[in-house]
Amino acid sequence: MKIGAHQLRNGLFVAPMAGITDRPFRRIARRMGAGLAVSEMVSSRPELRESRKTRLRQDHSGEAGPISVQIAGADPQMLAEAARYNAGLGADIIDINMGCPAKKVCNAHAGSALLADEALVARILEAVVAAAGVPVTLKIRTGPAPERRNAVRVAKIAESAGIQALAIHGRSRACMFQGRAEYETIAEVKASVRIPVIANGDVETPADAKRVLELTGADGIMIGRAAQGRPWLFRSIAHYLESGEELAPPALPDIGALLAEHLEALYDLYGDEQGARVARKHIGWTVRSLPGGEAFRRDVIRIDDARAQNCAVNDYFAKLAA
Q1: How far apart are CA 112 and CA 41, in angstroms?
Q2: How crowded is the C-beta side of 217, counted as CA atoms within 13 Å?
Q3: Are 272 and 306 in contact (CB under 8 A)?
Q4: 106 is known as an active-site residue
Q5: Per-residue model confidence as pLDDT tens digits over 245-270
Q6: Full-model pTM
Q7: CA 102 from centroid of its chain's CA atoms
Q8: Catalytic residue chosen out of the listed positions 100, 106, 175, 311
Q9: In 50-78, which positions are buried (b, 16+ CB within 10 angstroms) versus exposed (e)?
């Protein structure tokens, strides 16, 4: 798949997830087979640019290109300036967030709240495309609510504005993450536009990925929650789509080594104290289906020291291997 001049190795995307798809997660997911990893959303508010949180979210050192940065906001000119600013920092692709259903984001009339105002959507997209100087992509949901699905109209607006690719989560804003994703709307969008369409929502296995691609005709798959603790899912899906064969899951020592590498990258990015706090959720996701995983998770979340935390993880996997 191509986005602008950028040729991706496949159509597997890491969904932008606040507090999760930071630099360590993106780097591992890319190495494990993802074609593109979109950053955590960055606020378009200029007064937040120098905050520690924003600076960490904009840290792409050591990442392979193309670099995709997601921006969030509701003001066309502010978003346009944010796109220009992040492109100046090295973003190869700018992604616009019109898919987040979180109350904090929607109460600021950003994220998926924007889908209720198609005229504003058009103004935002036109302003950002004109300002960015790099390809611009868009992430949306199916509409404000199940009875108000307007993704097809938004997709046509996006294509007319010059958006280069469109990712669609198969739920409305009102659905949050409840129920199952529906793919009929994504199929309708794919049939109505010529730009690449990426399907998102409830893809948990290689077979799911194949089924959703067949149901929607989409050009790619975007995966979020299913990759938490399982970054090798991208490699498994890529192999299955190419060969029709399921890859064996990683061996326990390999999972342990990958998690230890992830933890060290978190400590390096955030510092030992914050890194150890951020690491707890990744440890929990990784061990949740392993023997004694829940008991180990309960124990390890009490550990505040980064070195002790990593030692505990290494000891847990050593015992499993033994």
Answers
A1: 13
A2: 12
A3: yes
A4: no
A5: 999 999 999 999 999 999 999 999 99
A6: 0.94
A7: 15
A8: 100
A9: eeeeeeebbebeeeeebbbbbbbbbbbeb
